[in-house]
Design brief:
Layout (H helix, E strand, L loop, with lengths): L9 E4 L5 E6 L2 E6 L11 H24 L5 E9 L10 E9 L3 H13 L1
Antiparallel strand pairs: 1-2, 2-3, 4-5
Helix pairs in contact: 1-2
Length: 117
Amino acid sequence: MSDMKIDTVRSSNSDVLGRARSEARGHRIVLDSSSRPQPDAFTNSEAFLAGVSSCGVTLIEMHAQESGIPMTGIQVTIDGARAAAEPNRFATVTMTFEIAGVSQSQADELVATYRGR
């Protein structure tokens, strides 16, 4: 198992029902339950979606640089839809990539690289 990268996050309850504190490598974040009526912090679902979309940003950004593709900016929007009857599951997840400084074919190649990983 020496060739494995292990990421560790420790989460604990807070003084607010439906809110957790999470910590990794000295960085802290507060997450609210997605079922809280009025969440104040990022919800668990939003944090999950942010992890997926930010992976798209960083992977494409780094691949473009390594490949010599002159990308000048990227935005990824992710929408996760959940049915009221099954709020614990995403029924659909849609990602939209907006990539600046590249041709359509370069953008398509960059997104295909993300999808392939």
